[in-house]
Design brief:
single chain, Rossmann fold, 15 helices, 20 strands, elongated
Length: about 575
């Protein structure tokens, strides 16, 4: 921007810059915005400036130079409006000695602007002040020291389970315990509704559309209506206050805090000069369970997380969705099964393996594992009714069976993961040893530089892959140890559906984790097919042979001369 040559009024115009941040509160009222203005106004009058422009930044740290008032002052200088800047002390300009040095040594001289710092005795009209650079360094050191102390304080608070952030949507500060949260019932009702819709098969975009249709305030607009100041993107003027987006819904569905937990240190900053927050690895989080009153039960939250981590529901060619999408898997290859329909008869809908060699180039599964939707629905509903009868009629035996099964499964899973983890760690150490040997061979001339570089790259890539997998296994182990599904939880869910006659998406999501489909065994004019159903909280259990709990007899005729029979639940191996 060009400098103005019009000096009319400029020589008697001074910019008074005042700033206050939380760090300055410890200095008492002397640093208040009002007192700064009084002091600078008097100094300006003594120096002969009659036209005063005040630029202010209240509650903003001097570490950042992107302050609204500060930027407006620079713009006024570039436009040739002011001839002097007056501040209480150099730290008001900023606590970044590089940026403040650039301002005082380059920018202000270029525009011929006088700088007066009252407390530091700096006046550029009287000549260069040799101590100014040291004052700037000490200002930054002060900010660095404050940041260090604050980080240490946050670390102690965070490690003790005290929430470090503001309450998420659905919570509010507890008047009786201001450092902790309690449910904000009006918003908590919306949170519960979002989770229930997710269990009922709604996607994030669908949930957002329903909330907008029902005129539910978005979280930011809800806080604004309550007079609560929140950081984040504010609503644009004239925009709809009910305009929910799928990202907001997805974020709510992912928050573990709704189980009553406190999760600290999810983000971090690399330096006190950088305000951008970076995602922290989960292993560095500080997680404290059951600190607050939960809005969502842990069993419901975990079920929603399982749903969201599965492959997203897929549309059939007709654009139709199905409640089984995402939870039906091939029993042989483990691939998810796709929902499809028969092109000759659209009424026939079915699932088939997504990795079948006949439908996918490079597929590995040798059979389709085809299962009709109507057959699947009848089998699942029949098995749900059977396990309901067992759980309610033989509750003690059911509890013992589930506990024994859960213990065996969890012990097996944990042992497998720990073995893999130990194997990966051994391989990582072996790569370190190999690299050291290879380096010594390179120095001794036994391996040339190009060969050394190639092998180093290969080992580095392998170690990176190992680090990723180690992190995944640690997360899986943590989930296993924290898994809270119990017999009582399952029984409480089962009792809600004792008289149900139809399978619903909500019921399916509450009761079933996944279904494994086996390839049908062909017979003379008759096929038989087995399934393995993994129930939430209790897994895949085998019900004892009791006459009143016989497997459901289901038969569907698929085409002339051929019928499919349900052969029962596959035994655990």
């Amino acid at each position: 921007m060009k400098k103005s040559n019009n000096r009319k009024g400029r020589d008697v115009t001074a910019a008074l810059y005042v700033r206050l941040s939380r760090d300055d509160n410890i200095d008492g009222e002397s640093n208040s915005i009002v007192n700064q203005k009084k002091l600078l106004t008097k100094v300006a009058a003594d120096k002969g400036y009659t036209n005063l422009l005040t630029f202010s930044d209240d509650g903003i740290s001097g570490v950042t130079m992107k302050r609204p008032g500060y930027q407006q002052m620079l713009e006024a200088i570039e436009n040739g409006i002011v001839s002097a800047i007056i501040v209480k002390d150099m730290s008001r300009l900023g606590r970044n000695y590089i940026e403040v040095g650039r301002l005082t040594d380059e920018f202000l001289p270029e525009y011929n602007v006088r700088l007066i710092s009252v407390s530091d005795g700096v006046d550029s009209e009287e000549g260069e002040n040799e101590f100014a650079p040291f004052i700037n360094i000490m200002s930054e050191w002060y900010a660095r020291d404050i940041s260090k102390k604050r980080r240490a304080s946050y670390k102690v608070k965070g490690a003790s389970g005290e929430p470090l952030g503001m309450p998420p949507y659905g919570y509010m500060r507890d008047p009786d315990r201001p450092k902790f949260w309690k449910p904000d019932e009006e918003a908590a009702f919306v949170v519960r509704r979002i989770f229930n819709m997710s269990l009922d098969g709604y996607g994030s975009e669908q949930i957002a559309s329903v909330l907008e249709r029902d005129k539910v305030l978005t979280p930011m607009n809800y806080w604004n209506s309550k007079g609560v100041r929140k950081q984040g993107r504010q609503q644009k003027s004239g925009a709809c206050v009910y305009n929910w987006c799928s990202q907001t819904v997805a974020q709510i569905l992912s928050r573990q805090e709704y189980c009553g937990d406190v999760l600290n240190f999810k983000t971090f900053t690399k330096s006190f000069k950088q305000k951008a927050r970076l995602e922290n690895d989960r292993e560095n989080w500080s997680i404290h369970e059951n600190v607050h009153e939960p809005i969502i039960s842990r069993a419901v939250w975990e079920k929603v997380q399982v749903k969201r981590t599965n492959i997203r529901r897929r549309k059939a060619n007709s654009g139709e969705r199905n409640m089984f999408s995402g939870i039906v898997f091939c029993a042989d290859c483990g691939s998810i099964m796709h929902y499809r329909f028969n092109h000759r008869n659209n009424e026939i809908k079915y699932f088939s393996c997504s990795d079948y060699v006949g439908n996918k180039r490079g597929g590995t599964c040798q059979t389709t594992h085809y299962i009709r939707l109507d057959f699947l629905e009848q089998v699942v509903l029949g098995e749900i009714r059977r396990i309901m009868r067992f759980a309610t009629r033989y509750e003690d035996e059911f509890a013992r069976l589930v506990m024994d099964h859960s213990r065996k499964v969890m012990e097996s899973e944990i042992e497998t993961k720990r073995n893999e983890l130990n194997s990966l760690k051994r391989r990582d150490s072996e790569i370190d040893r190999l690299f050291n040997t290879m380096y010594e061979d390179n120095v001794a001339g036994k391996i040339d530089d190009s060969r050394f570089a190639k092998m180093s790259s290969q080992y580095s890539d392998e170690q990176s892959a190992i680090a990723v997998r180690v992190k995944e296994i640690k997360t899986e182990l943590e989930r296993n140890t924290q898994k809270s599904g119990t017999t009582k939880t399952f029984l409480s869910i089962v009792r809600r559906y004792t008289r149900t006659k139809k399978l619903t998406p909500f019921m399916l999501n509450e009761l079933i984790e996944k279904i494994e489909v086996y390839q049908a065994e062909k017979g003379q004019g008759e096929h038989s097919q087995k399934l393995r159903i993994h129930f939430n909280c209790i897994g895949s259990i085998e019900i004892p042979e009791i006459p009143q709990l016989a497997e459901p007899e289901i038969q569907i005729r698929t085409r002339k001369g051929v019928s499919i029979n349900y052969a029962g639940l596959a035994a655990n191996t």
